[in-house]
Amino acid sequence: MTVTVPSKVNVHLAVGPARDDGYHELTTVFQALSLTDTVTVSVAEESSMHVAGEGEKIVPRDERNLAWRAVDVLAEHLDTTPAELGPVRIALEKGIPVAGGMAGGSADAAGALLALSTLWKLDLSRDELTRLAGKLGSDVPFSLVGGTALGTGRGEELLPVLTRHTFHWVLAFAQRGLSTPRVYQELDRLRDVGDPPSAVGDHDVVIEALASGDPHRLAELIGNDLQIAAVSLRPELRRTLRAGVEAGALAGLVSGSGPTCAFLCEDAESAVQVSARLSGAGVCRTVRVASGPVPGARVVEPDGGPSGGEPPWDPRPPQAHA
Ligand SMILES: C[C@](O)(CO)[C@H](O)COP(=O)(O)OP(=O)(O)OC[C@H]1O[C@@H](n2ccc(N)nc2=O)[C@H](O)[C@@H]1O
Ligand SMILES: Nc1ncnc2c1ncn2[C@@H]1O[C@H](COP(=O)(O)OP(=O)(O)OP(=O)(O)O)[C@@H](O)[C@H]1O
């Protein structure tokens, strides 16, 4: 059973105060991008985890792997144990940069949840899967539902944002990743020493710009409160951000907790030009072109094409949460 799962960029990320539970209250606008991971699961003689592609040398293959943790969450939900569910082989083909700020691990967790619940014919509802996803991480519910969505709470409470238009992005992968908790800690430290509480505007105008389909409007409004913290930890990101705009992007920002930089471009053709110029500028490890919004985690046929009929789990976002 193979599932393809998108990456994400936060076109708007406003970070509120730290909560008692150690998380920060967020208001964010997620967009799922066509840069993806695939998760393939199968019944096996013994359990194993295989990783190829981005970060194949550093992604843990044991219980620390978020895809593996999906087995535990499903077993707990079913009031059984992974042993009872039986050994499975999980293979990850990764296109999303590890610890890159694009929800790479979160995508694999969402993909494993959907693939395993389909393989084991658990018949879980969309809302049940999304709730279980929230147990695996704040970004995992969005990896499951995809599209464009307003995220609140830790980022796990989702409200779908209907946008018909496709936006074109160039992604600059950094040499090495950044720890998400470390970036949040750095933001708290910067705020303690007097940095502005929030640099980003209001999410409503971002949603209107997305609905308009006008990349120029959206380019003026994208913003990420974590950017100042990511740049504080990785000052070289300033050069990357500048180089992307000099290469012809309309605007750029750090994706999530970074260090990947995402550049919004005028159209598909411009994105190809920007990626070619940026890859020659010596400011990042490698460059990818992607577009969004795309659907969330989806079961694909063995030949890799999208499944013919209605997926066992409808990829459209759940009904708006309260
Ligand atoms: C930066 C974003 O990617 C933006 O979408 C997310 O907020 C991070 O989502 P994630 O990686 O799934 O985060 P989780 O695995 O839930 O949490 C990892 C750590 O990040 C910090 N964290 C995460 C989410 C949040 N709203 N506030 C936080 O302070 C906490 O230290 C937490 O222990
Ligand atoms: N399947 C996985 N893919 C990538 N990293 C994983 C996976 N499982 C566990 N990890 C660990 O999680 C850490 C964070 O990786 P991840 O790719 O989720 O960060 P990220 O893309 O910045 O996530 P987010 O944007 O949600 O903060 C990595 O350092 C890695 O060791």
Automatic annotation (TrEMBL):
Residues 207-280 form the GHMP kinase C-terminal domain. Transmembrane segments: none annotated. Keywords: ATP-binding, Isoprene biosynthesis, Kinase, Nucleotide-binding, Transferase. ATP binds at residues 97-107. Gene3D superfamilies: 3.30.230.10, GHMP kinase, C-terminal domain. Residues 65-147 form the GHMP kinase N-terminal domain. The active site is at 8, 139. It catalyses: 4-CDP-2-C-methyl-D-erythritol + ATP = 4-CDP-2-C-methyl-D-erythritol 2-phosphate + ADP + H(+). GO terms for molecular function: kinase activity. Residues 295-322 are annotated as: Disordered. Pathway: Isoprenoid biosynthesis; isopentenyl diphosphate biosynthesis via DXP pathway; isopentenyl diphosphate from 1-deoxy-D-xylulose 5-phosphate: step 3/6. Residues 312-322 have a biased composition (Pro residues). Its EC number is 2.7.1.148. Pfam families: GHMP_kinases_C, GHMP_kinases_N. Catalyzes the phosphorylation of the position 2 hydroxy group of 4-diphosphocytidyl-2C-methyl-D-erythritol. Belongs to the GHMP kinase family. IspE subfamily. This is 4-diphosphocytidyl-2-C-methyl-D-erythritol kinase. It comes from Prauserella halophila. The gene is ispE.
